[in-house]
Design brief:
Elements: H1 3-36, H2 40-89, H3 92-97, H4 100-142, H5 144-150, H6 157-191, H7 193-198, H8 202-255, H9 260-302, E1 323-333, H10 347-356, E2 357-368, E3 373-378, H11 384-389, E4 399-404, E5 407-408, H12 414-419, E6 421-424, H13 435-440, H14 444-449, H15 452-465, H16 469-472, H17 492-505, E7 510-514, H18 522-535, E8 540-544, H19 548-551, E9 556-561, E10 564-569, H20 571-574, H21 580-593
Parallel strand pairs: 3-8, 3-9, 6-7, 7-8
Antiparallel strand pairs: 1-2, 1-4, 4-5, 9-10
Amino acid sequence: MHKASMILSISYIFITGLLSLLTPWILRTAIDSIEIETVPSHLLKFSFFLTGIAIFQGVFRFYMRKILIGVSRKIEYSLRLDLFAHIQTLDIFYFTENKTGSIMALLTNDLDAVRNFLGPGIMNLFNTIFVFFSTLVVMFVINYELTLYSLAAIPILPFIVWKLSSIIYERSKKSQEQYAAVSARTQESFSGVKVVKSFTQEQNEINEFAVLNKEFIKRNLSLARVKAIFWPVMIMIGGIGSLIVLYAGGKQVIAGKINIGEFVQFSAYIMTITWPLISLGWVINLIQRGGASMGRINEVFKKEPAIKSPENPAFIGKIYGKIKFENVYFGYPKSTKQAYPAFASDKAEKEDIEKSIGYVLNDINFEIKKGIKLGLTGLTGSGKTSLISLIPRLYDPTFGKILIDEVDIKKIPLELLRSSIGIVTQEPFLFSKSIKDNILLGKEYLSKNMLPEELEAKIVSAAKIAMFHDEIMEFPDKYETIIGERGVTLSGGQKQRLAIARAIMTGPSILIFDDSFSNIDTQTEELILKCLAKKIKNITTIMISHRISTIKDSDLIIVMDNGWVSEIGTHDILIKKTGIYKRLYMQQRLSFELGDEVEEI
């Protein structure tokens, strides 16, 4: 994609290098002409030549930098887009084992190091190689004896570069890793600012950040010390060469073997190759830092999402909402570093997986028809959230299968599956945008396919169903109110109702509420449920709740117990049994009678 620009820029590097070889030659010619005859016009002529070369060098050097640095910026832009897009495809396990701050460091600091390598790094690398070797060739042609003298200190250079560059690579990698740790801690501290302030942990956060920051400084200073050695060493090697040439060349001038012009030319070439030697340390540093960062980035690119859209999807135009679980087992790996659970093909393989994975769901079998309301309850940790996480394929079952409209969900295109499911979690995530933007959440096509007033009416309708419209209208900017980081300006109940409106706005075929009314009072909850029942029809609804009042009107209720389906039936059937459901019902009824509840079950 950028090959032509890179080649053109490198050709400009060669042109500027060739022009730099002309300057010492003109100086020699000028000095030789002065020795023969001092003519002012000749000096003026040589001055014009030198000025012309400087101008041409400046022009080519400008376009060389403009093109190459521009290409490095474009590559950085493309790489950042590709990396962000790839991270978006990765499964939940990746985000379990990698902190947000660390991922942000990849997209900022590491990519910046890669860009510096691709821009200034490559530019100076080619310039160093070409100028150094082309100048050496010319020096050998002029005086091979002096050239050999000037190279007396060069043989130790490869060893120094090899030794120090390997140290720079390792220390650069450690520095980048610590930067990621600092970023992660900073992100967590700012995201949890309410908790920090509520528990007066500001000083503790400052202290912990200071420890991480001190280690970051320590690693950077360790890297800086090694980098600092490069410059003096390169200058020293160049200085030794210049000193030898001054002594040996001076003796040859005195002996009449070479003239002053030739000696000046040779000395100028020594100065020409000194800068490549000096800059070599900086170039090596850019390469090593860029290599370390690119290695970290490549590690992410190598990660494949465990859950992908099927290569040969079933022909399905729309999801209607019939759901069926068949012999479903599911377990999280004991270590997030393990590969995603494989799918057993035989009994022996199943036994191997059982040894490494503890099931949180066991032999789940049930079927719910399109458009019905399913209630899901059970004690804390019984597997309710894990169960509903399998429906949109946030995870895949370890064994068994899930069918939607009689089609295995693994054969349904992932985008179609997830866009047909609306989920409201107990702790909804809100973006630092307006209320309107959070309700729409990326549904730009609605804005394109609807008139503004139609879109506004749809947003208001969703907010009204969630019983949030009246409160929105009390805000200064109403639907355009910016809610702050993660909705910091909203209460817990307001966040949940905004999330409910967002889920309704998607127009789902399946609507899942994962304990989404925990921060909403029972009166408001009842109003929302009644409104949902009237306004949203033919939508399969799954309601997870500890409150019996939330699910008692469900068409079907499933009670979970330690990963197993303990009971299944309607409210009237389950309260006649002696089980978990009846026990929960009696406990909550007793709480109501004692005055702890505001609404009767």
